[in-house]
Design goal:
Elements: H1 26-38, H2 44-56, H3 63-69, H4 75-84, H5 91-97, H6 103-116, H7 120-126, H8 132-143, E1 146-147, H9 165-171, E2 173-179, E3 182-187, H10 193-203, E4 206-211, H11 214-224, E5 229-231, E6 237-239, E7 254-256, H12 260-267, H13 272-276, H14 284-294, E8 299-305, E9 308-315, E10 318-320, H15 327-333, H16 335-345, E11 357-367, E12 370-383, E13 386-394, H17 410-420, E14 425-430, H18 437-448, E15 455-459, E16 470-473, H19 482-489, E17 496-499, H20 505-516, E18 520-525, H21 533-539, H22 544-550, E19 551-563, E20 568-570, H23 575-580, E21 592-594, E22 605-615, H24 619-627, H25 631-638, E23 642-643, H26 645-654, H27 660-670
Parallel strand pairs: 1-4, 3-4, 7-11, 14-18, 14-19, 15-16, 15-17, 17-18
Antiparallel strand pairs: 2-3, 5-6, 8-9, 8-13, 9-10, 11-12, 12-13, 19-22, 20-21, 22-23
Length: 671
């Protein structure tokens, strides 16, 4: 095996994942030379000289690589020509030209590849036709990068401050040398351009990629980061597995809120010493989450814009900007680091920037002398200006502990409590997305739970974790659908079943079957009012007799913003609002509005409350449903057994807790 070529650094060009190189056929090599001459990148004499070197070389070298070594062209120029003219070298041809395999061995490998659909290189390795080093050298010819035997190099230990050791171990990469503004990094998988981009962003340097054998890279890692190694039972060094802060005792999946930053810095690609040089970024994740939790936000929106990031918080259902006292400027200037830290916390792929990703983490924090575990759901999505993220905050302190805590008006709450005392049947909660249906379900479940019953839930996703329930998360990719869980639940002897949403015919049918066989079932539907649940269920294929015999009641609800109690003052609504919503209230009401203060972020509203109606079918309704009567007749009959939402609205207006502006938002939401 020839010695490794001398390292000659050129400004990095296109990403090394572009699998192009010189063509394998002799005629194609000449055509590449002709292309370079035609584009004035090389002279005919220079091409002939390179061809002479190629012919006299004991090992195969592509023409383009020879011209780069002779400094006739740069790697970027070669890549540009190959990409524009669609010149792509085949791995098998390169291995044959390098005399690593014979034509017969290549043919056998290709035949096996067609049968197993595996990578050709892996097949040739398994057949023992080539060694790992021969495969990597061929790949280097494809990727226009260098192969080095790292065991023969003296590593610069000062470079370990540039790349975090845990990130280096995870990605199997090691910094080898630095020449001016270029960092040479040996990578086990040099095709991972996202990792290269992450290194370029975090170090502020251009990245020149080389490769070596996996074993050689591991030995180099052990040499560069000896503190990361621990002796095994046979005396050999093993890489440490711990890359995160100590978990809370007894709860390995929960981290302390104060350690969020340490976790991020420990796993980020750039080393802690470099991170500490960026003033104002060490605590930005914790600060951001603290602001959101203190303000009662349900979501944080981090939206990529040109040269920065826009930060908004969903408070009381409305996106708002907050005064972050300079934190927003720090976040805008370190957007890449912020997204990387969120990915690390959420156990996402830090190098993936081209596909959406979803993850989560849990953190323990102390507020008002109480310790609370808060769940954070993180969703990443790539966009025109880069990645944007939304963080859903699930603070269990806002979870109602009973029906009484839901804020329903007393007649509705009393009738709902009566329904929940049933041992069998189906109760539905309806409303548009974001109307608090899941919160109402959990308040109902908390009301009826005691150690003598078993409650099973199927949710998508699990929003609140309750110790008394056995909760299961829907995952369509694994086949764990609502319907599949429902089928399994019936074999686990539950007393109460909660299904997060009835969205298809199979789930609807199984929910009603479960309600008929001695189980109390709670679920949700997307309808605008309570009685509209009936045609929705019929559309899903549920038999009318099954609905009539099992449906206990339907609660329909909306969330409306509550006027801030700290800055509430009398005010008269506009004539347009009065005329639009005159059917809800008379003109002799005492109207109020929020003037705006620091407590409500000068919006005039603080908090939200439920507006609800409850339909409980009586014998007349059931008879009409069984007969298949027109929906208009059933709706007219149901008015006698429905506690209407209009009465709830009037009560809230009389109390001055909301106003017509807030109600107008709800009507626009319903459409």
């Amino acid at each position: 095996m020839n010695s490794a070529p001398r390292l000659e650094l050129e400004p990095p060009g296109a990403p090394p994942s572009v699998r192009n190189g010189s063509l394998g056929r002799p005629g194609a090599v000449l055509r590449l030379g002709d292309l370079l001459v035609s584009e004035s990148l090389a002279t005919q004499a220079q091409v002939q000289k390179a061809l002479h070197v190629q012919d006299s070389s004991k090992s195969y070298m592509p023409l383009g690589h020879i011209l780069i070594a002779q400094k006739v062209i740069t790697r970027r120029q070669l890549t540009s020509v190959l990409v524009r003219h669609r010149r792509s070298a085949k791995l098998g041809q390169l291995l044959v030209k390098a005399k690593a395999v014979t034509s017969d061995e290549l043919a056998a490998g290709l035949k096996e590849q067609r049968r197993t659909q595996q990578l050709l290189g892996q097949i040739l390795l398994q057949l023992k036709h080539i060694t790992e080093e021969q495969l990597r050298r061929a790949l280097c010819l494809q990727l226009h990068i260098h192969f080095f035997d790292l065991d023969t190099l003296v590593l610069d230990t000062s470079l370990k401050a540039l790349i975090n050791p845990c990130f280096a171990e995870t990605r199997l990469l090691v910094p080898v040398a630095r020449v001016r503004n270029t960092l040479v990094v040996a990578m086990d998988d040099p095709t991972r351009t996202a990792v290269i981009d992450e290194l370029r962003s975090s170090t502020g340097l251009e990245i020149e990629v080389i490769t070596s054998t996996t074993a050689s890279i591991r030995r180099a890692l052990a040499q560069l980061y000896p503190e990361r190694q621990q002796p095994s039972s046979n005396g050999r060094a093993l890489p440490t597995k711990r890359c995160e802060p100590s978990p809370i005792a007894g709860e390995p999946h929960v981290i302390k809120f104060e350690e969020l930053d340490r976790l991020s810095e420990d796993l980020a690609p750039v080393h802690n010493d470099v991170l500490r040089g960026s003033e104002g970024t060490s605590g930005m994740v914790r600060q951001l989450l603290t602001v959101a939790i203190d303000r009662g936000a349900s979501d944080i929106h981090l939206e990529a814009v040109d040269h920065g990031i826009q930060i908004r918080f969903r408070i009381d259902g409305v996106l708002q900007g907050l005064d972050l006292a300079g934190l927003d400027e720090t976040l805008a200037s370190t957007r890449g680091k912020l997204m990387s830290r969120l990915k690390i916390l959420s156990k996402l792929d830090i190098a993936e920037r081209r596909r959406p990703q979803d993850g989560s983490f849990r953190a323990r924090l102390e507020r008002d002398g109480q310790t609370t575990t808060v769940d954070f759901r993180v969703s990443m999505i790539p966009g025109y200006y880069g990645e944007s993220a939304v963080i859903r905050i699930l603070d269990p302190r806002g979870l109602p502990q009973s029906v009484d805590a839901l804020g329903l008006r007393e007649p509705v709450a009393a009738r709902l409590r009566q329904l929940l005392c049933s041992s069998t049947g189906l109760i539905l909660v309806t409303g548009p997305t974001g109307s608090g249906k899941s919160t109402t379900l959990f308040g109902a479940l908390r009301s009826i739970y005691h150690p003598g019953i078993k409650i099973l839930t199927a949710e998508n996703p699990i929003e609140y974790v309750c110790d008394g329930f056995r909760q299961h998360e829907v995952n369509d990719q694994l086949g764990n659908t609502f319907a599949r869980y429902l089928r399994s639940f019936l074999r686990h002897d539950p007393d109460v079943i909660m299904v997060g949403e009835i969205r298809d015919s199979e789930t609807a049918d199984l929910a009603f079957r479960a309600a008929q066989t001695g189980h109390l079932v709670l679920s949700t539907l997307h309808t605008n009012d309570a009685i509209s649940a009936l045609p929705r269920l019929l559309d899903l294929g549920v038999d009318a007799n099954l609905i009539a015999s099992s449906l206990l009641g339907v609660l329909s609800q909306r969330l409306v913003r509550e006027v801030c109690s700290e800055c509430r003052e009398p005010a008269t609504p506009s004539p347009e609002l009065l005329s639009t919503l005159l059917h809800l209230a008379s003109s002799d009401f005492d109207w109020y509005r929020g003037r705006g203060c620091g407590g409500c972020n000068y919006t005039g509203y603080r908090g939200r409350m439920v507006l609800a109606e409850l339909w409980t079918p009586n014998d007349a309704d059931i008879m009409l449903i069984n007969r298949g009567a027109p929906f208009a007749d059933i709706s007219k009959s149901a008015q006698k057994t429905t506690l209407p939402m209009a009465e709830d609205v009037i009560d809230k207006l009389k109390q001055g807790r909301t106003n017509l502006e807030g109600l107008d938002e709800v009507e626009q939401e319903v459409g």
